[in-house]
Design brief:
Pdz3 Domain, single chain, Thrombin, subunit H, alpha+beta, globular, 17% helix, 494 residues
């Protein structure tokens, strides 16, 4: 990309902002005349408007307590629960001089190398539950957590989700750990003061301040949650997984990404909302193998300006129902294609991503109340939030033989498997569930979530059919694979 374009980075934090605290402490309508007079007196060298004004409030403050407005008490209560996260991974690096004794004595032989990453995390349970970003721990073999008091602990990963960019770790001790309570991110408003605490550039724990610049940010290029809090509190590389704290000392977000030209903060940072974090932590503590979202049996699409006009809406908002599973909760609730979901449990649904976020934060087995525009009339509809059905054809098959797909594990899509792989729940076909590292499938670039549509002229509708074709004796391979809604066609000799 050209240098003029912004880069999206995942991430870190620093920068101080003292004036914002004063703005909140002092009521705008009735400013403290004593403080105003003191500041005026100090700036004018002891005279206000050229003359001294008599009165008991007009004096130099006796001490720091009379003058200073500070975030220090808030930092003292929360900073101990923000930790450093060190992740390391053994990788095999192949030397370009392998087999040449002369060059090997200078450049070394091929062998394992240690790859490490540094980030932040937040203790949210006294038993040692730590939440951080997925990209901090990713494929790490070892993850170490260091507290601000110098203690270090080995940790294990309870749950991680690449699409949400969240991970939950567990550390153990005989004594309870300091924690930050998880707050209600839906209560945030643009302009609220917040603190960002983390370990930018590995320099050590750092606190910065700012405001909530925007809410419900989408399409920033990180994760699939697409519902971020934007803040101007300085965030830099190393702050990934750190805490975004409100003025009540509650965790309202996990700092995740920044927009930057230089790699450092320019005042545009993004955090995953705490309500999503709470749902993810609850799933991890319950022993879930993956983060499961409620199933409603419907697919959605954005409401464009043209669609809004055709439906008589004042402006584009909500999520348009494009299809409904005839046996799903949406159909039983009376929802139909063409209906527009405007709110979820009283919270506005600004766009399709907002509905996905609000669904993901709800527990399976409950109910939700939707405000729906149907045939020009707004109605309130109650819908059940169910577990996605597994189906009868989700058995996984490992492909072997001599083909580009060897080493890939595949299965027929069910609603539950589609949800796990973050594929639209109505999608049919045979999907790649996992790819063995070092296998031909990995070498050819196949990824988890790829849907194999055709192979050597045959439409793939079952895992067994793909297995039969992939393990056949052939040197030429013609295939069509769907990834993120795009079809990729390839022909190769192997």
């Amino acid at each position: 990309m050209r240098a003029k374009r912004f880069a999206l980075l995942v991430l870190g934090a620093w920068m101080t902002f003292a004036g914002a605290a004063a703005a909140q402490e002092a009521p705008a309508a009735n400013p403290d005349p004593g403080l105003s007079d003191v500041l005026t007196d100090l700036l004018s060298g002891g005279k206000g408007n050229g003359e001294a004004t008599p009165g008991p409030d007009r004096r130099v403050p006796f001490g720091r307590e009379e003058m200073q407005l500070s975030f220090a008490p808030l930092v003292k209560d929360t900073a101990a629960a923000v930790v450093n996260v060190y992740a390391s991974q053994q990788v095999n690096v192949r030397s370009p001089f392998e087999g040449d004794p002369f060059f090997e004595q200078f450049f070394g032989r091929s062998g394992p190398r240690q790859r490490s990453s540094l980030g932040s995390g937040v203790l949210v349970d006294p038993s040692g539950v730590v939440v951080t970003n997925y990209h901090v721990v990713k494929d790490a073999d070892q993850v170490k957590v260091a507290l601000s008091d110098g203690r270090e602990f080995a940790s294990k990963v309870l749950l991680k989700d690449e699409t949400l960019d969240l991970a939950v770790l567990k550390i153990d001790s005989d004594k309870p750990f300091p924690t930050v309570p998880i707050g209600d991110s839906d209560a945030l408003q643009v302009g609220d003061l917040v603190l960002a605490i983390g370990n930018p550039f590995g320099v050590g724990q750092t606190t910065t301040s700012g405001i909530v610049s925007a809410l419900a940010r989408t399409h920033i290029g990180v994760a699939d949650s697409s519902f971020f809090i934007q803040t101007d509190a300085a965030i830099n590389p190393g702050n990934s997984g750190g805490a975004l704290i409100n003025m009540g000392g509650q965790l309202v977000g996990i700092n995740t990404a920044i927009f930057s030209r230089s790699g450092g903060s320019i005042g545009i940072g993004f955090a995953i909302p705490a309500n999503m974090v709470r749902a993810f932590v609850d799933a991890a503590k319950s022993g879930a193998e993956f983060f499961e979202r409620p199933f409603v049996g419907a697919t959605f699409e954005p409401v464009t300006a043209q669609i809004a006009e055709s439906l008589g809406m004042e402006h584009p908002t909500g999520a348009l129902i494009s299809s409904v599973d005839e046996n799903g909760p949406a159909a039983r609730a009376g929802l139909k294609p063409g209906d527009v979901v405007l709110s979820f449990n009283g919270k506005p649904v600004e766009h399709m991503e907002a509905l996905d976020y609000r669904l993901a934060t709800q527990p399976i087995g409950g109910k939700a109340t939707l405000s729906v525009l149907t045939k020009g009339e707004e109605k309130s509809i109650e819908i059940a939030l169910e577990r996605a059905p597994e189906g009868t054809s989700a058995a996984e098959v490992l492909l072997r033989g001599r083909s580009p797909f060897a080493g890939a594990k595949v299965a027929e899509l069910s609603p539950r498997l589609a949800q796990r792989l973050r594929v639209p729940t109505g999608t049919k076909g045979v999907v790649i569930v996992s790819v063995d590292g070092g296998s031909p499938a990995a070498g050819f670039g196949f990824q988890r979530g790829d849907i194999v549509r055709e192979l050597n002229g045959e439409v793939i509708d079952t895992a067994q059919k793909l297995q039969q074709l992939a393990e056949a004796d052939s040197r030429w391979w013609r295939f069509t694979v769907e990834r993120d809604g795009r079809l990729m066609r390839q022909m190769l000799r192997y």
